[in-house]
Amino acid sequence: MKAENIQSNTSAPFLAGRAFGTFHKEQASTITARLVEDAKKIHTAQDLKDYCNGYKESLGGTGADAMTSMVRCILKVATGLDAKMCDYHKVKTPAQGQKVVKDKMAKGANGIDSLAKALRIPSAGKAEGDGESDAEPTANDAKNLADLWSTFMGEALKNGHTKDDIAAFIATINLAS
Q: Is residue 156 a contact partner of residue 166, using CB atoms and an 8 Å limit?
């Protein structure tokens, strides 16, 4: 037997992991490319909201909010529908927004997470909200926490969540991150 034809059992899992990693990167690129194509069909803030709601509903479960937030961030640039993000990226038309997104993808931001991070305004933190700015308010502009909590509770209850659902969700939140 020639030495180059011998493969140890310990390298097989490594090679399988490498193959899976390559597959994952290819799928991430396919998903983000599809998102750019879908952006061409989104023309209004309501279209963007409906698209994101449909996406979130199809995901369901843990992580749906975070994934939807990232998709929303990408689409805000790719559709030219968010003034602050478009000003930051110097986007005036949806075609320019799609070019910015494709440029970020060409520079290695191929997954939804990495692409959303590459597109966020640096001081913005996580992208959240439908059509709202991604910039965090200053201390003077910040809303009262009690008012924010009341809004959250009202929206959660209006969307069919029970107080037990909300309590279970709160128990999963890590405030350290």
A: yes
Percent of the chain with pLDDT over 90: 42
Global confidence as pTM: 0.62
| Same domain as 172, residue 100 | no
Domain that holds residue 172: 139-177
Please give the tally of structural domains in the chain.
2
Q: What is the CA radius of gyration of the chain?
A: 20
Token reading at 104: 């970020």
Residue 105 has pLDDT above 80, yes or no: yes
Q: What tens digit of pLDDT does each residue of 34-72 get?
A: 999 999 999 999 999 999 999 999 988 788 899 999 999
Token readout for 118 is 């590459």
**What is the amino acid identity at position 75?**
L
Q: Classify the phi-psi angles of 129: left when phi > 0, otherwise alpha if psi is within -120 to 50, otherwise beta.
A: left
Q: Is residue 176 part of a domain?
A: yes
**What mean pLDDT is predicted for residues 147-162?**
75
Residue with tokens 């910039």: 135
Domain-located, residue 2: no
H-only helix segments in 40-111: 45-59, 64-79, 83-89, 94-106
